[in-house]
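> forwarded from #structure-qc
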């Protein structure tokens, strides 16, 4: 599969967790793709114009991120919105022929992207995703902000989001991680991580990182 843009995981950073979303992927967006796009962009139908499909979420995910077709949080910077709103007759318009998206569909698409272009429901409606790392919610616990961490590695949530962070400690059922670009520790409930990451966290907890002075 061609990689057009780096697979990124900042989606949740841009999406406030406890907000009711105006647009939901499954309820609002998938039906639009199905009605207006699958004819030419569907893995199931074997139509993959320019390599884009909208019925395989794993592949769709790789089109979501900074400098991708869909820029989470930024509909106005998302090339996809340009394609969808291009005038009929403009050869870049998607779909290239027939009815374009209705104003209502465009509004939903815009809302969905603005809210982070999540493929899963937000944490408010379905627990499973990674919590956005808000310092205010990350109350200082036993581990200090500059606690030693293992070298950064990838951690995956039950819903497939990935973050890169070093392991710091386990605090009860909470995994304390250290993201390279943040001074505050990042706390994730163990239950939010997928099985592999969960196992790894427990393993790391058994042999905690050795303090390396000044780290
Ligand atoms: C009738 C067939 C057809 C339909 C329906 C269609 N597309 Fe396309 N799509 C194409 C073709 C053909 C291309 C390649 C166009 C090109 O290279 O100029 C393309 C290219 C694209 C690209 C890549 C553009 C780029 O600049 O690389 C995207 C993204 C896209 N389509 C999204 C969509 C979306 C979203 C929909 C539904 C709203 C849709 N398409 C509906 C035929 C279709």
């Amino acid at each position: 599969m061609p990689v057009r843009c780096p697979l990124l995981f900042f989606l949740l950073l841009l999406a406030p967790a406890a907000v009711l979303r105006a647009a939901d992927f499954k309820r609002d967006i998938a039906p639009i793709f199905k009605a207006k796009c699958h004819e030419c962009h569907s893995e199931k139908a074997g139509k993959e114009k320019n390599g884009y499909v909208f019925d395989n979420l794993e592949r769709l995910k790789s089109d979501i991120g900074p400098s991708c077709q869909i820029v989470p949080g930024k509909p106005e910077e998302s090339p996809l919105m340009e394609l969808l709103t291009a005038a009929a007759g403009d050869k870049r318009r998607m779909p290239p022929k027939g009815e374009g998206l209705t104003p209502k569909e465009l509004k939903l698409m815009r809302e969905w992207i603005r809210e982070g272009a999540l493929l899963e429901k937000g944490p408010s409606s379905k627990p499973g995703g990674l919590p956005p790392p808000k310092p205010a919610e990350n109350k200082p616990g036993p581990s200090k902000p500059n606690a030693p961490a293992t070298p950064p590695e990838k951690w995956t949530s039950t819903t497939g989001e990935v973050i890169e962070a070093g392991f710091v400690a386990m605090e009860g059922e909470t995994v304390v991680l250290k993201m390279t670009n943040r001074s505050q520790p990042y706390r994730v409930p163990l239950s939010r991580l997928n099985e592999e990451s969960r196992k790894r966290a427990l393993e790391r907890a058994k042999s905690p990182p050795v303090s390396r002075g000044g780290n």
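QC bot note: The pocket of heme C is lined by residues 36-37, 39-41, 49-50, 52, 69, 80, 83-84, 94-97 (CB under 6 Å). The chain has two domains: 11-114, 127-215.
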